[in-house]
Design a protein that fits this description.
single chain, alpha+beta, Elongation Factor Tu (Ef-tu), domain 3, OB fold (Dihydrolipoamide Acetyltransferase, E2P), five-stranded antiparallel sheet, elongated, Biotin_lipoyl, YknX-like_C, efflux transmembrane transporter activity
Length: about 475
């Protein structure tokens, strides 16, 4: 429930005197006051919880045994300080296997070269070569025989006939060879096209095999890197300076998380455990081991080992009602009172307003508001102790403030539908209904930004019973 509260108005000297006489035993039903200036503050009240700057629950990256614990509950640690060491032969064996797989994947096998594709080509044959030689020998014998003929005329005719036959044979042989060469060229063109297609196919196969080898090598490197990270995580170090708590921070669900992580392969469980143990703004789950973290205690992947809380800067997380949250913004000043520190007030400043609603128990919704928490003082002026994360508080946010407002008591205001009304005393002493606009609204006093002027007389008590034209005291 939101409560609006104002600063003490100090208006005893500014309040109007009573205008009607009354008996000493009974206060008058209607009281009149004079409009004056006064400081008015509108305050929104909301429940809140103290939070730390950061909280990290560090978890075991793999199944093993706690080899050594270097800290105790409540110790202050610095960033990078060794907190716990885990012994995990299984994780180291996984690393050795991953490195062997990486070396095998990185080895360069004999590459298939596209240049190795066979080049197919037929030689140009000479089908008439042997026949030409045999025919040439026959023509030579015929010419020798013709030269032995004694009759010159007959001898000349025989030689001429032999030469003509030889010429005809040469022409036929040349034609046959040309046909053979043309056919060979055509066949070689077809073979060349086939050879190119075969080469392209071999090239695609080579590229595919290279891609597979590259993917396999990348996967092997990733697994080796994850295995190395798991082994490195066996030495648990503080991610930042803070206060140590052995095991997990208060909260539920850690045992279930540890059980689930324990079912994963060691490399993946290490990564998931490291991610789950990262810095966070809230509490994490308790150790899945279910007992105190000490040397010799077995742990599973994901078991909470140590929680580090940075309390160098404290904050407040408040739930502001939807009816008030639009008045809240970064820089708004506030004061906080802690249940654990009675009589002390802590300074605070709004640093951010969330947009995700949270359903309230009464059916409405509230919104998260983050505040930086400052130092506190007791009512007597002494310094108050620094609170601890998780403590309950009530914050009062000064959402509107007017140090020199035209102010009237909150009891003067009458709400009529969507209008805000005051009863003003006319000069003739009768009541006038006046619609006004309000600014800052404190618990005791409210600011009137429009509709009233200083010095006017208004009804400050019994306004609900006044009627237009009524004679006022």
């Amino acid at each position: 429930m939101t409560i609006r509260r104002g600063l003490p108005p100090l208006l005893l000297s500014l309040m109007a005197v009573l205008a009607a006489a009354c008996t000493s035993e009974e206060a008058p039903k209607v009281q009149i006051g004079t409009v004056a200036r006064a400081p008015v503050s509108e305050v929104v009240e909301a429940p809140a919880t103290v939070g730390a700057r950061a909280t990290a629950t560090l978890r075991s990256p793999a199944a093993g045994t706690v080899a050594k614990v270097y800290v105790q509950d409540g110790d202050k640690v610095t960033k990078g300080q060794i907190l716990v060491r885990i012994s995990s032969p299984q994780a180291r064996d996984q690393l050795a296997q991953a490195r062997r797989a990486e070396r095998q994947a990185s080895a360069s096998p004999r590459a298939m070269s596209v240049a190795a594709a066979p080049g197919l080509r037929l030689p140009a044959p000479n089908l008439t070569a042997s026949l030409d030689r045999e025919v040439a020998r026959g023509f030579a014998r015929a010419r020798a025989a013709a030269r032995k003929v004694e009759d010159r005329r007959v001898r000349a005719q025989l030689l001429a006939a032999i030469d003509a036959a030889r010429t005809q044979h040469r022409a036929q042989s040349a034609a046959l060879n040309q046909i053979t060469r043309d056919l060979t060229r055509s066949v070689n063109r077809s073979l060349s096209q086939m050879s190119g297609q075969i080469g392209a196919g071999l090239g695609g196969l080579t590229a595919s095999m290279a891609s597979l080898r590259s993917a396999s090598a990348s996967q092997a490197r990733a697994l080796a890197k994850a295995a190395q990270a798991t082994v490195d995580g066996l030495v648990v170090k503080a991610p930042f300076g803070g206060i140590v708590t052995l095991g997990g921070a208060p909260g539920g669900g850690g045992a279930n998380l540890g059980a689930l992580l324990g079912q994963l392969p060691p490399a993946l469980a290490g990564q998931a455990g490291a991610a789950a143990g990262g810095a966070s703004g809230g509490g994490a789950a308790p150790s899945a081991a279910g007992g105190t973290i000490a040397s010799g205690v077995p742990v599973s992947a994901g078991d909470a080992l140590v929680t580090v809380t940075d309390v160098s800067k404290l904050s407040l997380s408040a739930d502001v009602d939807e009816t008030d949250v639009l008045l809240v913004g970064p820089g708004v000043r506030a004061e906080a009172e802690l249940d654990a520190v009675t009589g002390a007030t802590y300074k605070a400043t709004v640093t951010g307003v969330g947009v995700t609603p949270k359903e309230g128990t009464t059916g409405g919704v509230s919104y998260p508001v983050r505040l930086a928490l400052g130092a506190g003082t007791y009512d007597g002026g002494d310094a108050a102790p620094a609170p601890k994360p998780g403590m309950s508080a009530v914050v009062r946010l000064t959402v509107r403030e007017s140090p020199d407002a035209v102010a009237v008591p909150a009891s003067s205001v009458v709400t009529s539908g969507r209008e805000t009304v005051l009863w003003v005393v006319r000069g003739d002493g009768t009541a006038e209904r006046r619609v006004v606009t309000l600014g800052a609204q404190g618990e005791a006093m409210v600011e009137v930004t429009r509709g009233l002027t200083l010095g006017e007389r208004v009804v400050v008590r019994g306004a609900d019973s006044v009627r237009p034209g009524q004679t006022l005291p």
